[in-house]
Prior knowledge:
Elements: H1 27-35, H2 40-47, H3 51-65, E1 77-86, H4 97-105, E2 110-118, E3 123-127, H5 135-142, E4 151-155, H6 158-162, E5 170-174, H7 187-203, H8 212-224, H9 230-242, H10 247-256
Parallel strand pairs: 1-4, 4-5
Antiparallel strand pairs: 1-2, 2-3
Helix pairs in contact: 1-2, 1-9, 2-3, 3-8, 3-9, 3-10
Amino acid sequence: YMCKNCSRQFRVTTGTFMYGIHHRDKMLEYIKCMSAGMTLRECARNVGICLQTSFFWRHRILSALQSFEDNVNFFGVVELEELLMNYSEKGKKKRDKKEIKKLKKKKPTKVAVLAATDRSGNILFKKLEDKQVQAEHVSEFLKSRISKDSVVCGSDKKAFKTVNAEHIKHKEIYSKKKKKDGIYSVSTVHKKISAFVSWIYYKFRGVATKYLTNYIMWFVVKGKYLADKIIEDTGRLLNLAASDRRAWERYSSLMSLTYLIHNI
């Protein structure tokens, strides 16, 4: 195709996660392996590609899933909680002995993740460029995501206590010392957090912080759109990933990121 305005040429796959891939005929089988829960090495072996290509393909697909973050909305009782994860540079190989010794003595830096869910099963985690969740993070996160009659229920952390915004009409704070009776609690979001942490650390043995957002959206899409049926999930995952025209741009930006996050 050719653009009438700028005369630049483009194709059907331009901008999508498939852009620039040489072995396109193997992508469907690769997505099938991903849906089956295979590791990077198992995917590479089954599809007939190298391990590095398997890694790149995974993150092409996951980068495409990030577009669904804007589609997540919450209704009714919305539960919020803070999740702190260790900053990780997993996969970084160029380290000398002095750097390794220094890292062992240093306390792990924390990366804050804001977790939210409602009673309808809508869920979203948001990685923040900060050591802890702030009130402004909560306000910005919920803006245009919650309905007018929603009740925001958070733990007794400072961010949830102090958040005050026009779109948050009703707020309930839950604490261990003073438990709320009835439907206001944070038990549902705690279960989601436990499932996510187990998935990250037992399934993948942890992930590098720079790729954390990709894995968050994989977890969200798994819970909302996939049904643990390999054939059906393969088709759904392919359709979901192929619908994003900014996947290549997002993937390229991710791969060019350095590991060091200055704000954390």
